[in-house]
Design a protein that fits this description.
mainly alpha, globular
């Protein structure tokens, strides 16, 4: 009788191969986080760190007008962008379910939907700024050519329509990735489950809600967390389309833009690195906390 093989021992030197990756992670991730944490408790005079002031930066950020109003406004816009991303996930789920039924042309549609994701958000922002231009934009020109001139609008000129336009562009840019994730999750579901449901007389809607949706829970969890983090990190798309103040009248302002203005002198005319660090730390805590709650909410066995 052959003896059981002993576990293969890994040489201690193998772990050294992880050091370059750990060094890069430490320099570009851990060090900025720790520096931000420390800076948020200090007063700054220009670029020089001053005295320890404890939680004063946080008090100023959340209780002093008009800064606290800017924070609440930007937070509300970030929440709207997140809710819009969830609408995009629903659309992506439906499109993925339709693609899952295709027997021909699936690869073409997958590539077509994913193509916008390959573009930089800065490029996307400038491109859509031109498309949505009220006078020379392609969208209003298309409406005029179709005899639907009454639908023409200065899309980026009012706070409500500008935020909606930014949200729509964000969905257009990211929906292809969500479709691929959902489609991969659907293709991992055994076909005999669908066949048994059809034999039992289940309708397509019932199959989607009782089989496809529950069995793609992990995909929903991943995309929801990524959507939340992406919505609260929004900077480059709004910066390209509406500028650093989130025009018009801060209607598209986000926490990322507000942090940029605080840290580099665009809010009030002088740099406030301590306030910017406090805001960045608050954003980090918020994103980490909500992400953990989302993972727990989607944990298997929780209905």
């Amino acid at each position: 009788m052959a003896s059981a093989r002993s576990p293969r021992r890994i040489s201690p030197g193998v772990h050294l191969f992880a050091l370059p990756a750990l060094a890069v992670y430490g320099v570009f991730v851990l060090y900025p986080i720790v520096t931000t944490l420390v800076n948020s408790f200090f007063e700054f005079r220009g670029m020089r760190r001053g005295d320890w002031i404890g939680l004063d930066n946080f008090r100023t950020l959340f209780t002093t007008a008009p800064l606290n109003e800017r924070v609440l406004n930007a937070l509300g816009n970030n929440v709207v962008l997140f809710l819009a991303s969830m609408v995009g996930l629903v659309i992506a789920f439906v499109l993925a379910a339709l693609l899952h039924q295709l027997t021909a042309g699936r690869e073409f549609f997958k590539a077509a939907y994913f193509l916008p994701r390959l573009l930089s958000l800065i490029v996307v922002g400038f491109l859509w700024q031109l498309i949505l231009s009220p006078r020379s934009g392609a969208l209003n020109g298309l409406f005029d050519a179709m005899g639907l001139g009454f639908l023409s609008h200065a899309w980026l000129a009012t706070p409500r329509s500008a935020l909606a336009a930014v949200a729509a562009v964000g969905i257009w840019h990211s929906i292809g990735f969500a479709i691929l994730v959902f489609l991969a999750a659907m293709q991992a579901i055994p076909n005999n489950i669908y066949e048994a449901a059809r034999i039992d007389g289940a309708s397509p809607w019932r199959i989607m809600m009782s089989i496809t949706f529950p069995l793609t829970r992990s995909a929903w969890m991943i995309l929801t967390v990524l959507g939340f983090i992406g919505a609260f990190e929004t900077f480059d798309l709004v910066y390209a389309m509406q500028g650093v103040t989130g025009a018009p009248y801060y209607g598209t302002d986000t926490l990322g833009l507000l942090f940029y203005r605080l840290a580099f002198g665009g809010e009030g005319g002088t740099a406030a690195i301590g306030l910017g660090s406090a805001l960045a730390l608050a954003m980090l805590v918020l994103m980490a906390g909500v992400s953990l709650l989302t993972v727990r909410a989607f944990r298997p066995g929780r209905d």
